[in-house]
Specification:
Blueprint (H helix, E strand, L loop, with lengths): L1 E6 L3 H12 L4 E4 L11 E4 L2 E4 L5 E2 L3 H6 L7 E3 L4 E5 L2 E5 L8 H7 L5 H13 L13 H8 L3 H16 L8 H13 L2 E4 L4 H8 L7 E2 L4 E4 L3 E4 L4 E10 L3 H8 L6 E11 L8 E4 L8 E4 H4 L9 E8 L6 H16 L7 E13 L11 E4 L2 E3 L9 H23 L1
Parallel strand pairs: 1-2, 1-13, 2-10, 7-15, 13-20
Antiparallel strand pairs: 3-4, 5-9, 6-9, 7-8, 11-12, 12-13, 14-17, 14-18, 15-16, 16-17, 19-20
The structure holds flavin-adenine dinucleotide (FAD).
The site of flavin-adenine dinucleotide has 35 residues, from helix 1, strand 18 and helix 12.
Length: 411
């Protein structure tokens, strides 16, 4: 019998378990898959580090600063700004708030004028963390119009950028969320750990005593103070069970309705030469199927073997057709961007992830980990927002709930 059973070794479950362990509780983590990290994992394929879908960390995430040893992750940063393919030409946009020279550069590229500088300054003044957001909640799409961005900046820069963040090209996402992400992106860097995104979960797992994570064990059922595994075995918890099984499985175990999924697809290519630098490359035309390209090895050389480049070509959602059709469409699109060298790229893998995030329209954001009933806490990004920050925070809040209940029991 453990003090606490945590279902799911994603970032929420691992953060929760680590905090409870640090408070002296005996925690058992039960994980259905063969490794830790949940949706944030990295596989080494032919010497390349392939994250499971294109993912990044913002080092301005408050919860990442709180929960992780960021220095130990050896973070490698993207350059701020973006390269944008729009109307037959690649245009580079720097970060207007960090590099004033990028303002005339953006104007020359047809992407930004005085109205956009005014809108960005207004956004920076008004954007705040979710917890303190007070403005009426509208969609992110409406928010960008309300701020006064010009049509070219909205449609060719901000839409593909935030479509890639929220996996929703319509930007039917809470304005409170886009405000928070904008301020996190503006104040910090976009990074990946040198060893791949999977290093985040591995760091959290390393804080737990050996033997406290059971891999390959699927929880089938929640009891009052116990869980039943697929093998039929039962595990009992003295204080609480924390369900941090990802949005869809947590909802299934808890018997509550799940939100809609938001999918993501990534084509990973091996190339001899890098087609771009350390900036994200956006599909300003919004024709697809690829929404954004990142040369991972330019940002973090350890993502590829010496002399090779690793390219992530990421699509919003799940493009129709089979892998061969998707590969052909992506190569045709990227040949227009980077030239005929794209024909020589070697496809390493295609990741199609149906449940990358959940839909986050206005009014849908979670208010944090909560008690489902006596002894059972619901946690995971679904209780906050679909991000590494949201998952880590939900794990901390779940740990706080369990610790507070234990104190009450002892009184
Ligand atoms: C392709 C992609 C791109 C993304 N991009 C970003 C990004 O750039 N930045 C960002 O901040 N966030 C991004 N996210 C979102 C972020 O990864 C998630 O919000 C976060 O990882 C969710 O963590 P979690 O612990 O709540 O859930 P999960 O990571 O889903 O963890 C749940 C765990 O529970 C296990 N489990 C499920 N059911 C059971 C069961 N019955 N029994 C036992 N175990 C079970 C699962 O195997 C899993 O390991 C992205 C996600 C994806 C997939």
């Amino acid at each position: 019998m453990a003090d606490v059973i945590v279902i799911g070794a994603g970032l929420a479950g691992l953060n929760c378990a680590g905090l409870l362990h640090a408070h002296g509780l005996d925690v058992e983590v039960v994980e259905a898959s063969d490794g830790v990290g949940g949706r944030v994992r990295t596989d080494v394929v032919d010497g390349f580090r392939l994250d499971r879908g294109f993912q990044v960390l913002f080092d301005g995430y408050p919860e990442a600063q709180r929960a992780l040893d960021l220095d130990a992750l050896d973070l490698k940063a993207f350059l701020p700004g973006a390269d944008i393919w729009w109307d037959g030409r690649m245009r580079t946009i720097g970060h207007p708030l960090r590099d004033p020279r990028s303002i005339p550069q953006a104007a020359r590229a047809g992407l930004g004028g005085p109205a956009d500088i005014k809108a960005a300054a207004k956004w920076l003044r008004e954007a705040r963390p979710l917890a303190t957001a007070t403005a009426p909640e509208i969609t992110a799409d409406e928010r960008l119009r309300q701020l006064g961005f010009s049509e070219p900046v909205r449609e060719h820069l901000l839409r593909p950028l935030y479509a890639g963040v929220f996996l929703d090209a319509s930007l039917n996402v809470s304005s409170h969320l886009i405000d928070q992400v904008f301020s996190q992106m503006a104040s910090g860097r976009t990074v990946v750990p040198a060893r791949g995104m999977g290093a985040i979960g591995e760091q959290l797992a390393a804080r737990l005593p050996e033997g406290s994570i059971q891999l390959g064990e699927h929880v089938e059922q929640l009891g009052k103070d116990s869980v039943t595994l697929a093998s039929g075995a039962t595990l009992t918890a003295k204080h609480a069970i924390v369900v941090a099984a990802g949005t869809v499985d947590t909802c299934a175990l808890a018997g509550v309705a799940a939100p809609e999924p938001r999918g993501s697809t990534c084509l990973w290519f091996d190339a001899i030469a890098a087609p771009a630098g350390k900036r994200i490359v956006l599909d300003g035309d919004q024709r697809g199927p690829v929404n954004n390209v990142a040369v991972m090895s330019a940002v973090a050389p350890s993502y590829a073997p010496p002399g090779r480049s690793l390219i992530a070509a990421s699509c919003v959602g799940l493009p129709p057709g089979d892998d061969a059709e998707l590969e052909a469409a992506a190569r045709a699109q990227l040949t227009a961007w980077f030239g005929s060298r794209v024909h020589h790229w070697r496809l390493l893998r295609i990741d199609r992830i149906e449940w990358a995030q959940h839909a986050q329209p206005p009014g849908s954001l979670g208010s944090g980990a909560r008690w489902l009933r006596d002894g059972i806490v619901l946690s995971g990004d679904g209780t906050e927002n679909a991000s590494i920050d949201g998952a880590l925070r939900s794990g901390r809040r779940a740990a706080d709930l369990v610790l507070a209940a234990k104190v009450r029991q002892a009184q």
